[in-house]
Amino acid sequence: MHKATLTKYIPLKSSDIKALIPAQVIFLLTSHDLETMRSSRGYVASITTYFLNKGVNSRESLSSCMDSIAEKVVRGCLNELNTRVMQHSLPVTISSELQKLLVASCHRIARARDIAGKYLNRMITSLPSLMCDEPLVCAILEVLTLLRRACEGEYTDEVCLMWHLRCDPPKIFPVQPGPSLHINKIKPYD
Q1: Where are the domains of the chain?
Q2: How far apart are CA 129 and CA 155, in angstroms?
């Protein structure tokens, strides 16, 4: 029964749904319902947190179904926001949520980064007026500044780790010194 309900939500993934265990099906149904309700209220950034979980990312069928659910939630959210734009009643949380998506699009985990970037791109492409929001523009500029500084820092603050292993001959009573680590800072390129 639950697999049939999930297949109604994401019919293109019916073969992947057959490979899921019941707990995974319940997880996907719950995440679908929860994220659909959140996105209809303007809380759009939480969908990326599902892709931070190694258990979701490591199982091919679960990950594929979660991608489809995220895509369905994004489509529903964009439809809702397009309707609200026509009525001039965007949720007040949309600015902070877009900033969270922007930060998530820089995450170290590739799956979360890809989903957040795709979601953010689709929202700004569909609703270009969102770029008139000053806090969002400032957040974009801040991320770009951090990226530039990180790229510059690669060349100015290089560190070369050098291992020096020292083994002294055994002595009868004193404690032997162990391995030591010396960090030598390299001068920046000219």
Answers
A1: 2-157
A2: 38
